[in-house]
Amino acid sequence: MNSDLIDFYRSVRSDDALHAKLTAIKDPQANIEAIIAEARSRNLSVSAEDIAAALTDTAGFLQAAVNDDELNDGELELVAAGVPMMPSVKEMGAGSRISFD
Fold first, then answer.
1. What is the C-alpha to C-alpha distance for residues 54 and 60, in angstroms, rounded to an integer?
2. DSSP 50-92
3. In this structure, how many other beta carbons lie within 10 angstroms of the beta carbon of residue 76?
4. How far, in Å, CA of 41 to CA of 86, rounded?
5. What is the spatial distance between Cα 97 and Cα 101, in angstroms, rounded to a whole number?
6. How far apart are CA 90 and CA 49, in angstroms?
7. Sequence-distant (≥ 6) Cβ neighbours of residue 24 within 8 angstroms
8. Among the four 5, 18, 73, 95, which has the fewest Cβ within 10 Å?
9. 28, 34, 36: which is closest to 87 by C-alpha?
10. CB 22 within 8 A of CB 36
11. What is the C-alpha separation between 5 and 26, in angstroms, rounded?
């Protein structure tokens, strides 16, 4: 799991403005590009492949990212119900957990 993506996710969990900015993007490809750009602006290296890997193993990603913190309602729902595997990076977007809905 990419530690920079984990660090970025932690930042988004604690930054309401960044969370709102990313969730407002509805186009899947634009959402991925925005995540990568925002991470890069914080000197973090995140790729579309890293995002795809996190979506494939959502429970593992959340466990690594949340650590000892409590899961929020959306995260609990994802862990309990699971999310469908994403067949390609192009199909990921605003509705996927990595978009921080």
1. 8
2. HHHHHHHTHHHHHHHHHTTSPP-HHHHHHHHH--PPPS-GGG-
3. 12
4. 26
5. 6
6. 11
7. none
8. 73
9. 28
10. no
11. 20
Which position has the token pair 């199909």?
91
Within 10 angstroms of residue 77's Cβ, the number of other Cβ atoms is 13
Residues 6+ apart with CB under 8 A from 81: none
Question: What is the tens place of the pLDDT at every residue in 41-86?
Answer: 999 999 999 998 888 888 788 788 877 566 666 665 655 665 544 4
Q: What is the pLDDT of residue 27?
A: 87
Mean pLDDT of the chain: 76
pTM: 0.67
Average pLDDT over residues 82-101: 44
Burial class (CB in 10 A: 0-12, 13-18, 19+), 8: buried
